[in-house]
Design a protein that fits this description.
Number of strands: 12
Number of domains: 1
Largest sheet: 8 strands, mixed
Low-confidence stretches: 1-19
Strand content: 25-35%
CATH architecture: 3-Layer(aba) Sandwich
CATH topology: Rossmann fold
Order of helices and strands: EEEEEHEEEHHHEHEHEEH
Strand order of the largest sheet: 1-2-12-11-5-10-9-8
Mean pLDDT: 88
Bound molecules: adenosine-5'-triphosphate, magnesium ion
Radius of gyration: 19 Å
Distance between the termini: 27 Å
Length: about 280
């Protein structure tokens, strides 16, 4: 059942994972958070005041038309970009400057071509000046988890695109952040690798207990992975709707063939048709 409050359609929050729905504490919170880019050509109103909450352990995706401010929102949560208004809180504290407890995966793997796989992962520890012995131990564990043993000494260009993307995810996990921010991490992958990475990400999220904010252009990917999907409107972006995805975990790829999955996809697509803006995926 949906109820309409202002321009936000809220579905009753389904208990997507037992005990999670409303009992977990709020980890990321936007209170009227807005963004205006000030440029030489004038102000660019990018995000209208947004209100949202992401709970500890939740997997939340953001979908929306190109240019609506998704990357802007993610960079602000990461503390890489200042907000223009309102308040943005991480663990109850206002985000001011880059956050320690956050791992970021950018759209392209962004690996350093002259560094081997292990050294690309360890870059995270070097930048953060973490003790290297512990970082090496954790890197080895992560490499095993992601099935990349034997590739530690390879250079990125010796890996497939999917493997490179896994390395960039491991780099984001090295310092064991409680929050993982991912901006279209699988956009450059072929469809089959992308599905494998979706399964892998679900596994990492379920075993490592992270809170994930994923930006994606793919409606099926958002539904498959998320507890909740936030749909943004065109720039200046606002949250047009949010949907709780009530599908049991772990989700096999087959779930995409179910009627319930198709119904979610239809509902989400309807927003983009309404905005005259549907992505190809
Ligand atoms: N540094 C900047 N200065 C001025 N305007 C900017 C800047 N960065 C982004 N913008 C504008 O803000 C809007 C939102 O950009 P953003 O990158 O957040 O969009 P997005 O939703 O991530 O888009 P996409 O899906 O294409 O990645 C765009 O219209 C863009 O032109
Ligand atoms: Mg973007």
């Amino acid at each position: 059942m949906s109820q309409v409050t202002s321009n936000v359609v809220k579905l009753a929050p389904a208990a997507a994972r037992e005990g999670l729905a409303s009992s977990a504490k709020v980890l990321i919170e936007g209170r009227g958070v807005s963004k205006i880019y000030r440029t030489k050509e004038g102000d660019v109103e990018t995000l209208k005041p947004l209100d949202f909450q992401i709970r500890e352990g939740e997997f939340v995706s953001v979908v929306g038309p190109s240019g609506c401010g998704k990357s802007t929102l993610m960079k602000m949560v990461a503390g890489l970009l200042p907000i223009s208004g309102g308040d943005l809180l991480l663990s109850g504290r206002s985000v001011k400057g880059p956050q320690i407890d956050v791992g970021i995966v950018f759209q392209n793997a962004l690996l350093l071509p002259w560094r081997r796989v292990l050294d690309n992962i360890l870059l995270q520890a070097e930048i953060r000046r973490l003790p290297m012995a512990a970082a090496r131990k954790r890197a080895a564990e992560l490499i095993a988890m992601a099935g990349l043993q034997g590739f530690e000494d390879k250079y990125p260009w010796q890996l497939s695109g999917g493997m490179q993307q896994r390395v960039s995810i491991l780099r984001a996990l090295l310092h064991d952040p409680s929050v993982l921010l991912m901006d279209e991490p699988f956009g450059a992958l072929d469809a089959m690798t992308r599905e494998r990475m979706n399964l892998e990400l679900q596994r990492i999220w379920m075993t490592a207990g992270k809170t994930v904010l994923l930006i994606t252009h793919s409606i099926p990917e958002a539904i498959f992975l998320s507890d909740r999907v936030l749909v943004m409107s065109e720039r200046p972006g606002s949250i047009a709707a949010e949907y709780a995805i009530d599908l049991p975990r772990p989700r096999p790829l087959d779930v995409m063939g179910t009627e319930k999955f198709a119904a979610y996809a239809r509902t989400l697509r309807a927003h983009f048709f309404a905005q005259g803006n549907l992505d190809a995926h």
